[in-house]
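Hello Y.,

Per our agreement to keep a running log of every chain we model this quarter, I'm adding this entry. I've kept the format consistent with earlier entries: sequence first, then predicted structure.
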Amino acid sequence: MFKNIELSEINNDRVVQSLWVLFSSIGAFMIVGAIVRFGMGNDEFSIGLIFYYLLQVIFFGWPMWGGIWLLFYIIERFTLGKKSTTKTVAILFIVEIILPFLFLIIVLAFENRANFLGLIVLVPVILAQCIRWKYLKHKNRMYNLIK
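Predicted structure for the entry above:
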């Protein structure tokens, strides 16, 4: 009777599983930043310095990145429900952009010197969320399509 009706709802699992897109994009931006900062900053290209930077990010940065991933995972699991819409997901992504910004502002407030270059850390988060949004919107990965 209703053969031409198409219903769509947010696929919560795909949205939460797309966290890998967020963190792989941030990682790619960090690698490119390391290559530009350390590789081109000297008179010669230094692979050893880039390798050292990447080891520091992996071994010393995993508690921070793991904590952020866990926080985002918990927020997305409890926020997304049966009645979630595209607007809910967009607001959730904006909140996930604002949280690291607030954390960075708090850290900079307790620092003795005013170093606002740390705000550059937020650019990869914003760009990664945009890439994640495009990934979910491409081929309707965000939705369960019912025909």
